[in-house]
């Protein structure tokens, strides 16, 4: 792993830890974390911004991994789902995270720009928007959806799951540098 990748992955891991801690109110047992819970009028915007930051950190890590692999780097490509898809295609790897990354993009835009009120569905005319976290706890569960017109409510568990998702992609990227598709699947 290159120094650029170490720095980019470290930034993503710190960002995920920070965002995950923000929804936790400090308790007696949680003396190390003094981060206040995200509450109040701007809660949706703060969470949306945190999700934007995680996405940006992943975007930079993909650039670092591409550089380490000698693959083309596209720093101007802001769509992280497209960038990860191109990276994985270049390495002949499956891209199982695509739908979730795209759902996270819609979720963070809804939180940041619409205060958490779902204004449109997944595509034109759709009555619901798929969010970037599962309806039920558990790895591999189906992603939840919210009807147009309803508020998008992000729980502590939802945010923990999203942060874990980003950390897993980072681990896969860092562990897969220099390996082909056969080695990455084992």
Short key terms for the protein model shown above:
186 residues, mainly alpha, two-stranded antiparallel ribbon, 6% strand
Q: Strand order across the biggest sheet?
A: 1-2
Alpha-beta content class:
mainly alpha
- How far is it from the N-terminal to the C-terminal residue, by CA? 19 Å
Helix amount:
40-55%
Report the sheet-strand fraction: 5-15%
Following the backbone from N to C, one meets helices and strands in this order, namely HHHHEEHH
Give the low-confidence spans: none
Number of DSSP helical runs: 6
Largest sheet: 2 strands, antiparallel
- Our Rg estimate from Cα atoms comes to 17 Å
On the 0 to 100 scale, the average pLDDT is 88
Give the overall shape.
globular
Number of strands: 2
Question: Would you write up a description of this structure?
Answer:
The chain is mainly alpha-helical and 186 residues long. The protein has a domain of 129 residues. 54% of the residues lie in helices and 6% in strands. It has six helices and two strands, in the order ααααββαα. A two-stranded antiparallel ribbon has the order 1-2. Helix 2 runs parallel beside helix 3, helix 2 runs parallel beside helix 5 and helix 3 packs antiparallel against helix 4. The longest helix has 27 residues. The protein is globular and about 45 Å long. The mean pLDDT is 88.
């Amino acid at each position: 792993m290159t120094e650029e990748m170490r720095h980019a992955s470290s930034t993503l891991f710190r960002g995920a830890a920070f965002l995950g801690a923000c929804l936790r109110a400090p308790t007696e047992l949680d003396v190390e974390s003094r981060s206040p819970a995200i509450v109040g009028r701007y809660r949706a915007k703060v969470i949306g911004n945190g999700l934007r930051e995680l996405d940006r950190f992943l975007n930079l890590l993909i650039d670092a991994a591409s550089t380490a692999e000698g693959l083309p780097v596209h720093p101007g490509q802001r769509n992280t789902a497209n960038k990860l898809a191109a990276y994985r295609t270049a390495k002949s790897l499956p891209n199982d995270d695509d739908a979730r990354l795209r759902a996270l993009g819609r979720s963070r835009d809804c939180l940041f720009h619409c205060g958490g009120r779902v204004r449109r569905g997944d595509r034109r005319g759709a009555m619901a928007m798929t969010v970037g976290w599962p309806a039920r706890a558990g790895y591999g569960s189906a992603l939840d959806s919210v009807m147009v017109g309803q508020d998008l409510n992000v729980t502590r568990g939802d945010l923990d799951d999203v942060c874990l998702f980003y950390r897993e992609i980072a681990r896969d990227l860092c562990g897969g540098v220099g390996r082909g598709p056969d080695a990455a699947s084992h």
